[in-house]
């Protein structure tokens, strides 16, 4: 439906907005990006704790070939598919990105046939798009193949992130038109992947560059040129960086795409293909004397030569010459030839002449000169070719080229940053992105006009909708004022004269959509007394650069009398009291004041960053006598865009209305002050009138002209097809895993039977039984294992494990016995010492009950008795018999004993000392606090009598060492035990026992611990060794 703006609340006039509830978190927090190149792809993820990381594939590489190998019963991706492409090139599909969104008669399809003649391409009977025909029963469209690649990229990202991933941002070339962008979205839908945005690869690169140089961006515009030459194409982009002010985030950096130039076929692949042809000619010359056939007729040999050409191009970028060498190129004949960099440059001389072309296009579309460009940065793998850098440096006239960005991973990192910004699970620093529309879009329609002669004729009108290099995302509205019946209009590309002849032929259809409107006449008949404001068509160019028609509506207006709102009984009584009070104070009654009518609901304004043509201009463009041509529209300067911090027109109107209300209220109050002279009754006023708007939805039927989209049934069928292939791959992987586990178990167990620790706990008969079963299963695996199901393999493995379970148990228990028994003996010893120390505590200081001590003693006795009895029983058993002393039983006994000890330790930790009466004599015998020596033997000052001996509490007899009395100033408990504040600062470990012997309480807060009431001047008897 149509969104409305919020009404201001009557009491305060505020916007009435309430705080939005927090956005619900998605099921998964990780997001991914896919930098989709023609030859390879890079995948990046963001998840909590892992900021922007490139995903490693199964071969631990950061770059994965965009290749899919499809056999009868299995699929291969990445490096595995690239290996299959050498052995069987027909089933390995690669470089298929250039076939997306193109009809079978497109020049790029013919170019693909020349480059890769081993592939059979057919035309779809309904859509006339390309199909890869591997077998008569197995055909795949480029969208389906791309869906497989995207699904594989998600599996890599999920394995790396260790969680499922649904959201992704995918990069596409900036020159992709509407049909090609829709094809990528269809492929993502087949892969069941939610696309947050299709971002242009050049924009993602510029975003990555700006994010990592955020502090260097200021209010001064900085113009940077990015020259991206990849494997299949070249794109040059002019980007402007500067800070802007926004309402939401304040002053933040922003990038704006100012100009774009491209060459669809200039890239590293074309260099490799030419080098491949050169190598094929050298190989034919070496075998010409033998009368051998042309190597170009052997797809497998040509695939090997293409791989060698790729390696040579990389090496010759750093070396002047290198030797090409292929073992067994064709008919078991090896190939070896020396190739120099000069030969490669001669082969690609015309390609290097095309290097400056995208630079000139980008500067022309940006309306800039090279002097305004501060830096030229290289992106893409093909820019590493020295001759490319030399030609580019000469074209831009700079001292050097910028290489301070990762040429391979910049786009993937920028795209994943955008994915995190669009996701609900992350909050990133704002960075504005204003992308640009590369191809203009216009609306065309025809209507009847009256001629001077009195006749009627059709007049064709064009209206520019989205101009070239205009920013997006944005929304536009076109109003048709001269129609009162059903009609149609077309949405087409605008002037494409800036494209070259080859690019124009490969562009496809210039017509996008025909829109048929139904229900216009019916809407007029339903509202005969209303004034028509036209038929409004709402268009949206979203973040992915995909055009859509949101809705079409017929707008009517009429004038109605404004009815005052009815008041409730309580409101009227309250207003009466206020009028009485106002009259007594000399103020006019409320009825005499000007009442502000409630504001009408208005349509929500455009999204931030969009530029919508004013309604008056829209009407004038739709009903003008002379149609505005696209060239004239492009020459006309665009309407000024509202600043980000400037209030929208709706808000400005509301402010003006509020100002009028305030002025009227002040005038009313001024008149009310002289209420005594004012007449009691005023003449009746005329009823207020207001404009009422009515919106009627119009049915719009769209006919796609550039490339028909697959139907919902076709998409569902493709989705099921890809899911079935994925399930088949998973079943294959599970079967291979089961077979490998069974084979590994057989070899490991056969080896264990000859180890001494296994022979000690088994008899000869037991080992022979296991060995026979292992040999039988191994023979079955070799004979019938290739056709066995996953279930059969798992059952065989379960049988062998059950047979060997007793042997493995006996070995495992004997390995664990020494450690477990030593731990049990140590716990029994410490528990016994703790119990004896606890029983020696004097009754006046005792913190444990008799029941607690008896329970601990009972657990100690039971544990010791069980250990002795179990060890004796185990000693009577043979080593090959099932043991009765199990490590899990030892652990259970230790847990029960440790639980009792920990309970008493925790109780002692938080126990409070019992209050006792002060003994005057004992107090008098205390040494002075300022004594020089803390011990009882401290000598008194000269001239003073010696103090009496300290009163000691008798210690009960015990078979422990004599206690060590220590005079301390404070007692602090910590993680290592109890720390005493004496000179030596000894530590009492947990499990030890300390008995406090008197002392005083210092109610001052201890600064180091923050604890009040620290007991000081204590004598502590320690019944355990002190760790210093």
Automatic annotation (TrEMBL):
<keyword id="KW-0732">Signal</keyword>
<dbReference type="GO" id="GO:0140662">
    <property type="term" value="F:ATP-dependent protein folding chaperone"/>
</dbReference>
<dbReference type="GO" id="GO:1903382">
    <property type="term" value="P:negative regulation of endoplasmic reticulum stress-induced neuron intrinsic apoptotic signaling pathway"/>
</dbReference>
<dbReference type="GO" id="GO:0034976">
    <property type="term" value="P:response to endoplasmic reticulum stress"/>
</dbReference>
<feature type="compositionally biased region" description="Basic and acidic residues">
    <location>
        <begin position="628"/>
        <end position="670"/>
    </location>
</feature>
<feature type="compositionally biased region" description="Low complexity">
    <location>
        <begin position="945"/>
        <end position="955"/>
    </location>
</feature>
<feature type="region of interest" description="Disordered">
    <location>
        <begin position="557"/>
        <end position="690"/>
    </location>
</feature>
<dbReference type="InterPro" id="IPR029048">
    <property type="entry name" value="HSP70_C_sf"/>
</dbReference>
<dbReference type="InterPro" id="IPR018181">
    <property type="entry name" value="Heat_shock_70_CS"/>
</dbReference>
<dbReference type="GO" id="GO:0000774">
    <property type="term" value="F:adenyl-nucleotide exchange factor activity"/>
</dbReference>
<feature type="region of interest" description="Disordered">
    <location>
        <begin position="1"/>
        <end position="26"/>
    </location>
</feature>
<dbReference type="GO" id="GO:0005788">
    <property type="term" value="C:endoplasmic reticulum lumen"/>
</dbReference>
<dbReference type="GO" id="GO:0034663">
    <property type="term" value="C:endoplasmic reticulum chaperone complex"/>
</dbReference>
<feature type="compositionally biased region" description="Basic and acidic residues">
    <location>
        <begin position="916"/>
        <end position="927"/>
    </location>
</feature>
<dbReference type="GO" id="GO:1903298">
    <property type="term" value="P:negative regulation of hypoxia-induced intrinsic apoptotic signaling pathway"/>
</dbReference>
<keyword id="KW-0547">Nucleotide-binding</keyword>
<protein>
    <recommendedName>
        <fullName>Hypoxia up-regulated protein 1</fullName>
    </recommendedName>
</protein>
<dbReference type="GO" id="GO:0006888">
    <property type="term" value="P:endoplasmic reticulum to Golgi vesicle-mediated transport"/>
</dbReference>
<keyword id="KW-0067">ATP-binding</keyword>
<dbReference type="InterPro" id="IPR043129">
    <property type="entry name" value="ATPase_NBD"/>
</dbReference>
<feature type="region of interest" description="Disordered">
    <location>
        <begin position="911"/>
        <end position="956"/>
    </location>
</feature>
<comment type="similarity">
    <text>Belongs to the heat shock protein 70 family.</text>
</comment>
<dbReference type="GO" id="GO:0005739">
    <property type="term" value="C:mitochondrion"/>
</dbReference>
<comment type="subunit">
    <text>Part of a large chaperone multiprotein complex comprising DNAJB11, HSP90B1, HSPA5, HYOU, PDIA2, PDIA4, PDIA6, PPIB, SDF2L1, UGGT1 and very small amounts of ERP29, but not, or at very low levels, CALR nor CANX.</text>
</comment>
<comment type="function">
    <text>Has a pivotal role in cytoprotective cellular mechanisms triggered by oxygen deprivation. Promotes HSPA5/BiP-mediated ATP nucleotide exchange and thereby activates the unfolded protein response (UPR) pathway in the presence of endoplasmic reticulum stress. May play a role as a molecular chaperone and participate in protein folding.</text>
</comment>
<dbReference type="Pfam" id="PF00012">
    <property type="entry name" value="HSP70"/>
</dbReference>
<dbReference type="GO" id="GO:0002931">
    <property type="term" value="P:response to ischemia"/>
</dbReference>
<dbReference type="InterPro" id="IPR029047">
    <property type="entry name" value="HSP70_peptide-bd_sf"/>
</dbReference>
<keyword id="KW-0143">Chaperone</keyword>
<dbReference type="InterPro" id="IPR013126">
    <property type="entry name" value="Hsp_70_fam"/>
</dbReference>
<dbReference type="GO" id="GO:0071456">
    <property type="term" value="P:cellular response to hypoxia"/>
</dbReference>
<feature type="compositionally biased region" description="Basic and acidic residues">
    <location>
        <begin position="610"/>
        <end position="619"/>
    </location>
</feature>
<dbReference type="GO" id="GO:0005524">
    <property type="term" value="F:ATP binding"/>
</dbReference>
<keyword id="KW-0256">Endoplasmic reticulum</keyword>
<feature type="compositionally biased region" description="Basic and acidic residues">
    <location>
        <begin position="576"/>
        <end position="593"/>
    </location>
</feature>
